[in-house]
Design a protein that fits this description.
11 helices, about 190 residues, Endonuclease III, domain 1, mainly alpha
Length: about 190
């Protein structure tokens, strides 16, 4: 199984084979194009000398990690705060899952526990956690009992609501269309009627 999230074959391969890369991509997926967010774990790995290791990132000097995130081209629109967030996520994975990022999902007995594990990660609010649970279920086959309910509404099959549904260029286009319609609707509802 290979993801189609970054638009870059090597970056998508890393997301498919390194659970930490997938978690980091999801952390970074806010306020920047999703391709950039999911390509950044590969860029981070390259900047760290070719290895993306949870213990290394967790124990780095925070300023040094912020400098790595800030080097041009920056890994995120807000490189310093996102470097801090990624480091917090790595520290939690080291402390709670013995450094195994996949432990976030492999240790969950059911969908409710899986959602709780994901929501405990720094930077994962309710919606992002549900989207990640849907991504795990739809694209990695992580489907403990109740996972679809925990991921609702993003766990439903046949939808194009989020990054969880992107498995091809066509799916990416459909997800973008859905998000544009949602933004337009929200904007119309927010503007005063005449």
């Amino acid at each position: 199984m290979s993801f189609y999230l970054s638009g870059d074959e090597a970056a998508d391969e890393l997301l498919s084979t390194n659970p930490l890369a997938l978690v980091v991509g999801m952390v970074l997926d806010q306020q920047i194009p999703l391709e950039k967010a999911f390509r950044s774990p590969f860029e981070l790995k390259e900047r760290l000398g070719g290895t993306l290791d949870v213990t290394t990132v967790a124990s780095m000097d925070p300023d040094a990690l912020a400098d790595i995130f800030s080097a041009r081209p920056a890994l995120h629109r807000f490189p310093k705060s996102m470097a801090r967030r990624v480091q917090e996520v790595c520290a939690l994975i080291v402390g709670s899952y013995d450094g195994d990022a996949a432990g976030v999902w492999t240790s969950a007995a059911d969908g409710k526990e899986l959602l709780g594990n994901v929501k405990a990660l720094p930077g994962f609010g309710e919606q992002k956690a549900r989207i990640f649970v849907a991504l795990l279920g739809k694209q990695l086959g992580v489907r403990p009992p109740g996972w679809e309910r925990a991921a609702a509404p993003f766990g439903k099959s046949g939808t194009y609501l989020s990054v969880a549904d992107i498995d091809s260029p066509e799916a990416l286009a459909k997800v973008r269309q859905y998000k544009q319609k949602r933004k337009a609707k929200a904007k119309a509802e927010a503007s005063p009627s005449r």
